Amino acid sequence: MKKKAIIIGAGPAGLTAAYELLCRSDVIPVILEKSSYMGGISRTVNYKGNRIDLGGHRFFSKSDRVMNWWLQHLPLEGRAAGSQNITYQQQSREIAVAGAGPDPQNTDEVMLLRKRKSRIYYLRQFFEYPIQLTGNTLVQLGLVRTLRIGFSYLRSMLFPEKEIVNLEQFFINRFGRELYLTFFKDYTEKVWGVPCNKISAEWGEQRIKGLSITKAILHFLRPPAKKNSVVAQKETETSLIEQFLYPKFGPGQMWETVARKVIQMGGEIVTGFNVGAIHCENERIRAVSGTDDRGRMQRFEGDYFFSTMPIQELVRDLDATVPANVREVSDGLLYRDFITVGLLLKKLKIGQNAVQNNGSRQLIDDNWIYIQEPDVRAGRLQIFNNWSNYMVADPERVWLGVEYFCYETDDLWTKGDEEMAALAKEEMDHIGIIDRKDVLDSTVIRMPKTYPAYFGTYDRFEEVREYLDGFQNLFLVGRNGMHKYNNQDHSMLTAMVAVDAIVSGSTDKAPIWKVNTEMEYHEQK
Q1: Helix axis angle, 64-73 relative to 488-504, nearest 10°?
Q2: 196: number of Cβ within 10 Å
Q3: Which domains does the chain have, with CATH numbers?
Q4: Which pLDDT score, from 0 to 100, does residue 361 have?
Q5: SS3 for 85?
Q6: pLDDT tens-digit series, residues 100-115
Q7: What letter would DSSP give residue 487?
Q8: Measured distance CA(85)–CA(92) in Å, rounded
Q9: Integer Cα distance of 520 and 525 in angstroms
């Protein structure tokens, strides 16, 4: 009788684990998914033919394993048959291509090659992201502020903090106090809802990594011929990557494709399943029970168990006698929640300098914009047209995602859809991005527990990790499954490494936790 793996969650980590098990072992995966959609926060929401990418998911990785995996499921658009050159900045490799890549005009299962552009909107002006101390930036900041930033940065270089404990110290050491106060403090606190000196420095180490002002300047000074000429760019800090891959219909298309293959290969996906209990015996997980979308109680027994559910919920659902300290730490873990307001517009108020034949200004080419303005609650703005033109039903319209960060206990979370949409319209009008009279339609999407927080009881997280790793056949993978702010590719890698352990017969969980701690995997969105 074949062994079974019960996988809680159909996000990137869960679906990657299922597919890898089917390809590399005789273990049959059964995915238990609470919702009706695939991809978790990497899903694509379709609203009247206009698609929303929750949070923005650029498909790039410094892991060849992940890059190859993606292109295996969704091939890169139209390239010549024969020798295919997939290139990183300063590194490239030849791969064999059986035929010409698909044309997005004629096929849906295709990966697009997109340009990356993100900027900061501050003082009602655009600044490059990451910040580059170019002539234009210096003019925008003004002489006095620029001098303060320069001297502050030099001071941090000459007299760095020896012991970095919190995120504020990390930012100041990396960028100087003045630049931290100008471009990092307000935005970061808007995202997380707490002061930077209350957030662990580990967040900066994981998300900002090797990026610094020095590297930004060197990147700017690099010869133009070296720019915008690559796909994967292994030697480039992720925040400086200038190209990325993107599914024609957004990230959810990748996971819908993988889910279909998992079922075709013999796996099972149960949607609408609410976990009620996780049954344990002798340091092993035996089964998961709960109710399906019809309210029927079901029990799934297995040999291996993968969890991508929030650790707080996992610990609460264990039918074991959980040590008091573990339960205390688990209950004290915090999560930041996320709201996207989709706005369909006739046009943006801001635009490129070029003017089109109809007299309107050309659409700016940013993928997303960081809203640094302190007088609005919106944190980021996505322009879905620029992720993929196939994300918009009518190419003559502008399709925006206005992003808010909050807790489920905040007033933002409890606002009705109409009130939330009205707030987004008002704020974008207030800071000069749109004219609210140009809004044609709107929708609101809420995602709970989107970002695991590096405060609360996080400083004692090792107590929870050690306890859960003690279950020999339980593998924690993915962002919430590990309470680790992983990107999509890191979540996939945790699942791949977990499958490696099953295939090799190893019970060592350490390699899974090392994903996104080695410099090879350092990235930031």
Answers
A1: 100
A2: 22
A3: 4-42+253-333+454-521 (3.50.50.60), 128-220 (no CATH), 335-452 (3.90.660.20)
A4: 55
A5: strand
A6: 778 899 999 999 988 8
A7: -
A8: 7
A9: 16
3-state secondary structure of 107: coil
Burial of 137 (0-12, 13-18, 19+ CB in 10 A): middle
Q: What residues have CB less than 8 Å from 209, skipping those under 6 apart?
A: 237, 238, 519, 522, 523, 524
| Phi, psi dihedral angles at 11 (to 5 degrees) | -85, -170
Ramachandran category for residue 243: left, alpha or beta (phi over 0 → left; psi -120 to 50 → alpha): beta
pLDDT, residue 206, reads 65
Here the tokens at position 59 are: 């498909």
Tell me the C-alpha to C-alpha distance, in Å, between residue 43 and each of 3, 9, 410: 29, 13, 24
Q: Which amino acid is at 233?
A: Q
Query: DSSP class of residue 347?
Result: -
330's tokens: 């688990």
Three-state secondary-structure class, residue 257: helix
Q: Nearest CA to 448 among 489, 495, 490, 480?
A: 480
Quick one: which H or E segment has residue 382?
Answer: strand 380-383
pLDDT of residue 496: 98
Q: Residue type at 50? A: N
- Please state, in angstroms and rounded to a whole number, the distance separating the CA atoms of residues 431 and 497: 45
Do 101 and 231 form a contact (C-beta atoms < 8 A)? no
Strand partners of residue 76: 111
Q: Which residues pair with 46 in a beta bridge?
A: 51
Q: Which residue, 135, 132, 106, is CA-closest to 120?
A: 132
- Give the Cα separation of 330 and 456 in Å (integer): 10
By CB atoms closer than 10 A (0-12, 13-18, 19+), residue 257 is middle
Cβ atoms of 168 and 196 within 8 Å: the answer is yes
Which residues neighbour 104 within 8 Å (Cβ) at sequence distance 6 or greater? Answer: 77, 78, 110, 112, 248, 390
Question: Which residues, listed in sequence order, are joined to residue 420 by a DSSP beta bridge?
Answer: none
Q: Which two tokens stand for residue 355?
A: 């003017």
Instruction: Give the global pTM.
Output: 0.88
Q: Low-confidence residues of the chain, pLDDT below 70?
A: 79-99, 133, 206-242, 352-361, 517-525
CB atoms < 10 A from the CB of 519, how many? 8
Report the C-alpha gap between 295 and 317 in whole angstroms. 18
DSSP bridge partners of 118? 368
Distance from the first to the final alpha carbon of the chain: 44
Phi-psi region of 497 (alpha: psi -120 to 50; beta: other; left: phi over 0): alpha
